[in-house]
Specification:
The structure holds 2 protein chains of 2 kinds.
Chain A lengths: L10 H16 L5 E2 L13 H10 L5 E6 L6 H14 L2 E2 L8 E5 L12 E5 L13 H9 L4 H14 L10 E3 L3 E3 L9 H4 L5 E6 L4 E5 L5 E3 L27 E5 L6 E5 L2 H11 L6
Parallel strand pairs in A: 2-3, 2-4, 4-5, 5-8
Antiparallel strand pairs in A: 1-9, 6-7, 6-10, 8-9, 11-12
Helix pairs in contact in A: 1-2
Chain B lengths: L8 H17 L7 H7 L1 H11 L4 H10 L4 H12 L17 E6 L32 H12 L17 H7 L27 H9 L3 H15 L5 E18 L2 E25 L2 E14 L3 H15 L9 H5 L4 H9 L6 H17 L5
Antiparallel strand pairs in B: 1-2, 2-3, 3-4
The chains are: A alpha/beta, B alpha+beta.
Chain lengths: 283, 365
């Protein structure tokens, strides 16, 4: 009992997923449909990313999994444990040591290299879904490069609030062709997809789509000339522990004093920074 | 810091899992998988149908492991399915060859072969039977013996594995809309992504493995006013359906019998307008439902939806994207439950904008 294949999925399934990945790499930003398998974790809990990871993982790989910037978040721990239990591979929290990084809603602060693959978990792959609920029609709109809807969304936000209000999952134009949801990473991370050294793969398990941004691909966040794209700004704020300010921050509340303070969101980055500096952060 | 501490997540999770494992054993009671398999037929049939995995034993195991939680049991079996390669497809199996245990028609009183009530809770008064609180093993054996030694008054006039279909009667009168035989290979939704407009084989597969409650709710909505298919149940049959697998061998194609599965099949008659030589006439169309196990309500609801989706209209019940993308239990429960995951990066991103808008007051009038 409990004898599951290496990396959980049967070999035919892995092959099919790899074919979808290759097609995605060949057509940057295009959503490749695939027959998403049911996983032992919930649909919506990273099954798309997990299937990509399981289809790619080999015995030599070193895996890092993060959720909202943290290696220790419940879901990250769970996914890492599942991959480890079914493959026996090494895992790490250090971005630079990993060959394969699965992430939910963040791109690590440590710059990625060309020998690394980043796998992003995607809840809603379709950037046009807010304007067109039919899959049949959005597929046509992509084929015709008809993205008025995406621009109109931004335009309406600007008309109402004098700025865009798309928080995370801010749509990007890939290789001047496909508009793509980058998954709900903060806008802060959008520029990291552009001309990246590492291959970035996106898996949407419930919506059964895989897409990709190959290394060194032009990726631009969509914006108007007079209302340029803006990342989140933490003006005047810095990480309480490291003092860093050029990173994405978590907003925290001191349980005793009620005072608001900020910490690095990328927890392993913070840890490495402190170790390098020779201090250890103990909460 | 909630459940994403800088450290300690791993320990918290394993403590939570230990707690979960304790819940199952805390009263010190044992139930054997085999006891569940032989007494929890309704649960097992529903779970096998929704998980599209026909194994009474594994369904019973999933029931035990999930403490009787249907959502979790289906989830376990679907995930198990993903570890199994698909080695064969069965050959076409014809429900005319079903070994029928129950077969009723709501359309005709007297059907060839007769109405066979079989076993069904339909004729039951739903009153709690308090005697079951004190039922003993001896009681069970007595009841079993009593039923098994009852004399059967009269054998069926027709063989149970060759009962004619109620539909044949309408067909012989030319009242059923005639379709050419469709022998195209079915699409396999577990191997290829569903595309729109969907094919009938895709629709039937997604409906049959759909969540029972979701299929019933949408079928009901179709009847009540969000659809135009109001059926007459032509025939509901429940019984054992033989399954064969074809193997390519040197001696040519051979089909091997691999076993029988409990199946519910429904054919609904739905009146529809047909234009014959420029003249409007009324004929009957068919809505089809079939699922693993004895799941009669679901199969009837499925027949309503099958017909509705064959005839697209501008209501949700007749819209294949609306129906097919929302009835799967693993998908709906997964996405809803993911809302319990931390979302603080996305929230922080939104918060920053909301604050900026408030501060700037730059709302365009």
């Amino acid at each position: 009992m409990n004898k599951f294949p290496f990396a959980f999925l049967d070999e035919q399934s892995k092959k099919e997923i790899r074919r979808a990945i290759l097609k995605g790499v060949a057509i940057p930003g295009y959503q490749v449909p695939f027959a998403s398998r049911e996983m032992p974790i919930g649909r919506g809990w990273g099954t798309g990313g997990l299937q990509v990871t399981l289809a790619l993982v080999g015995k030599e790989d070193v895996l890092k999994v993060i959720d909202q910037g943290s290696d220790e978040s419940v879901n990250a721990v769970n996914i890492k444990k599942l991959v480890q239990d079914t493959t026996g591979i090494e895992t790490t929290i250090h971005t630079s040591e990993a060959t394969l990084i699965q992430t939910r809603h963040r791109i690590p602060e440590v710059p990625l290299r060309s020998d690394q693959i980043l796998v992003l978990q995607v809840p809603e792959p379709e950037p046009l879904r807010p304007v067109e609920r039919s899959e049949f029609k959005t597929k046509q709109l992509h084929a015709e490069k008809e993205y008025s809807g995406a621009w109109l969304l931004l335009f309406e936000q600007i008309m109402r609030y004098n700025q865009t209000t798309q928080g995370a999952d801010y749509p990007v134009l890939v290789h001047d062709r496909y508009v793509m949801n980058p998954s709900p990473i903060p806008r802060f991370d959008n520029p990291k997809i552009n001309n990246s050294d590492a291959l970035m793969l996106f898996g949407a398990g419930r919506e059964k789509k895989i897409y990709a941004v190959p290394p060194y691909t032009k990726v631009a966040s969509i914006a108007f000339d007079d209302y340029p794209f803006e990342i989140e700004r933490f003006e005047g704020k810095s990480c309480k522990v490291t003092g860093l300010s050029n990173i994405f921050l978590d907003e925290m509340t001191d349980e005793v004093t009620g005072e608001t303070y900020y910490l690095c969101n990328d927890t392993s980055f913070m840890k490495e920074f402190l170790e390098k500096r020779g201090t250890v952060y103990v909460r | 810091m909630g459940y994403v501490a800088v450290t300690g997540g791993k320990e918290a999770i394993s403590a939570s899992l230990e707690h979960l494992a304790y819940e199952r054993v805390k009263d010190g009671k044992l139930i054997e998988v085999d006891a569940l398999r032989s007494t929890m037929r309704g649960f097992i049939d529903q779970v096998m149908s929704e998980s599209s995995l026909y194994s009474e034993q594994l369904a019973a195991l999933a029931m035990k492991q999930s403490e009787g939680n249907i959502e979790e049991a289906v989830f376990l079996l679907r995930a198990h399915r993903s570890t199994l390669p698909r080695l064969y497809y069965s050959t076409v199996t014809n429900p005319r060859e079903m070994f029928v245990q129950r077969r009723i028609s709501a359309s005709f009183k007297d059907i060839p072969g007769g109405q066979i009530l079989g076993s069904s809770p339909d004729y039951l008064h739903r009153l709690l039977d308090f005697s079951l609180l004190e039922e003993t093993q001896a009681d069970i054996l007595n009841k079993k013996f009593e039923f098994e030694t009852t004399e059967v008054p009269e054998e069926s006039s027709l063989p149970l594995e060759k009962l004619p279909k109620v539909m044949d009667y309408l067909r012989s009168e030319g009242l059923i809309h005639d379709f050419p035989l469709n022998n195209t290979e079915p699409d396999d939704v577990t191997k290829e992504n569903l595309t729109f407009p969907s094919s009938r084989s895709e629709r039937l597969q997604i409906l049959t493995r759909g969540q029972t409650g979701a299929i019933n709710a949408l079928g009901y909505a179709g009847l009540r006013g969000y659809g135009s298919s109001h059926p007459n149940v032509g025939e509901v049959r429940v019984g054992y359906q033989p399954i064969h697998v074809g193997l390519d061998s040197d001696e040519g194609d051979e089909a091997y019998y691999i076993g029988s599965i409990k199946l519910t099949e429904v054919e609904s008659f739905i009146p529809m307008n047909v234009n014959v030589d420029g003249k409007e006439v009324l004929e009957f169309d068919i809505g089809y439902g079939a699922c693993f196990g004895q799941n009669e309500t679901k199969a009837i609801a499925m027949s309503v939806l099958d017909h509705a989706l064959e005839n697209p209209e501008n209501t949700p019940i007749h819209d294949d994207e609306f129906v097919l993308l929302h009835v799967d239990t693993v998908e709906s429960t997964g996405f809803i439950s993911h809302l319990k995951l931390p979302h603080y990066v996305t929230f922080q991103s939104k918060l920053e904008q909301v604050r900026k808008i408030k501060r700037g007051g730059g709302v365009n009038e």
